[in-house]
Specification:
By secondary structure, the protein is mainly β. The protein has one domain: Sandwich (Immunoglobulin-like). The chain is about 0% helix and about 45% strand.
Amino acid sequence: MLAERSSSGRLMYFEFQLERRQVWEPMVDVCERPTEIVLFVEMPGIQRSDVKLSWHDGVLTIAGVKRQSHDPCPTRYHCLERNYGQFRRDIAISVPVAPDQARAELRDGLMRIYLPKRLTNSGPSEIPIQD
């Protein structure tokens, strides 16, 4: 527990009991439609240039970096819950897809990845991210 005196001289108490995850990874929802697989990936505060999508042997890899905010606290923090740093998610997709026809969008902190279905799997591929 942390105690401080306010400008009026009263004691203020701050108690923080936080569990922090040591590694940040984006949360992912996977949806199957008749003609495609769609992934919804939460990416708050992440720039498109800081993310790379790739496909290899039935696995979609989402890798990148979440950079620390440029709004530092002028005095001191009482609580830090946001995680930063490198991340990587490898998601096995059992449905054959056409990664060469895949596309992705990153808008308002949510990335949508569209993987069109196909009859046979293809080789490694990078997936472009659109605005």
